[in-house]
Write a structure and sequence with these properties.
Strand content: under 5%
Radius of gyration: 21 Å
Distance between the termini: 41 Å
Helix content: 55-70%
Mean pLDDT: 75
Low-confidence stretches: 1-14, 245-261, 278-288
Number of strands: 0
Number of helices: 18
Shape: globular
């Protein structure tokens, strides 16, 4: 089923106060800004913190502070530049920027909480998709690699919430990712959509006949699906890319294919890149260095618990100067 098909109307999406606020957040990703939703969300922040200074000095997550500033830049348009400069300052000291700079090891992406930190960082720093100028000065290849790796991890978990949020980020930034990763992601989403158009995790399908139990399980995935729907409709490039991926690859088979990254294939890739730089220039630009390629593959194999392959890769990685301590600690946890 094409992702552009209308998912259920969400006017009645009220599970609790949090779900109502999330509904109003979702409305901001369309081609027009719903100022009623902006006012409702700002009213919540005002009731919680009374002032911007109180919020900035609180222990609230930094991307929540960015969210407030993004809302204010939409509300107070005359002072929008001032708010966006404050967003830039927070972003430059935030999680995603540190990850891009290499100050944080990639294995932190195994934490679902940190995958959410990436998506929310992009949602709010882009002012709900209205301004991506901050991301224009960032290494696009590095950002693409992080989003691809995050998708691979979420694909392994069949985590439809995070998959959809990452695809929203890809649409907002209009960034390129590998076709096979996109195809697998769309395939998993298609398989998670049930006849009434809700998106549901496999383990919750038994609740389909019990609306009182079923609704709390699907409200967030369906809100994010609406958000993704709005974004791809407003982005001709992403709309064409997403909606053309009607793959016949089944998720389980696709996951098997992902595990065919072997030590031999990495060595072969390295030799090919050395001997034919023009043909493989895209891959060289994409991951920058052979060391980064090895690190990404180690992380993937760690997640799949391919212990023997990880041990072989660590030997290569250490030989070329890679820091293996974090990876070895993770490997010990698996043994």
């Amino acid at each position: 089923r094409a992702l552009s098909e209308q998912v259920p109307a969400t006017g009645y999406f009220y599970k609790d106060k949090k779900s109502l606020l999330e509904y109003h957040q979702m409305t901001l990703y369309g081609d027009r800004v719903d100022m009623k939703s902006v006012d409702i969300l700002l009213k919540f922040y005002t009731s919680q913190y009374q002032s911007l200074n109180n919020l900035m000095n609180s222990d609230e997550l930094y991307y929540r502070k960015i969210e407030y500033l993004a809302l204010m830049s939409l509300k107070d348009y005359r002072n929008s530049r001032e708010y966006r400069l404050k967003i830039l300052n927070l972003f430059n000291n935030g999680f995603l920027h540190q990850l891009l700079l290499g100050d944080i090891p990639l294995d932190i992406l195994l934490s679902r909480e940190h995958l959410y930190a990436i998506t929310h960082d992009i949602f709010y720093t882009s002012v709900f998709s209205k301004d991506k100028s901050i991301f224009e000065d960032i290494d696009q290849n590095k950002l693409s690699s992080i989003l691809e790796l995050s998708l691979l991890i979420s694909i392994k978990r069949k985590d439809i919430d995070v998959i959809m949020e990452l695809m929203c980020c890809i649409s907002i930034l209009n960034i390129e990712i590998s076709d096979y990763i996109l195809e697998i992601s769309v395939s998993i989403l298609a398989n998670s959509q049930v006849d009434n158009s809700f998106f549901i995790y496999d383990e919750d399908r038994s609740l389909l006949d019990k609306i009182e139990d079923f609704f709390p399980k699907v409200y967030h995935t369906t809100l994010v699906a609406n958000m993704l729907n709005k974004l791809i409709k407003n982005n001709a490039n992403c709309s064409e890319v997403f909606l053309s991926k009607r793959t016949e690859v089944k998720p389980d088979r696709a996951l098997e294919l992902l595990q065919n990254i072997t030590v031999e294939s990495i060595d072969l890739l390295y030799e090919q890149m050395k001997n034919d730089s023009e043909k493989y220039s895209y891959r060289i630009e994409k991951l920058k260095t052979y060391k980064e390629i090895i690190a990404v593959y180690i992380l993937i194999h760690l997640f799949y618990e391919n212990i023997k392959t990880v041990e072989k890769l660590l030997v290569i990685y250490e030989r070329i100067g890679g820091e293996v301590k974090l990876f070895r600690n993770r490997l010990r946890e698996l043994l």
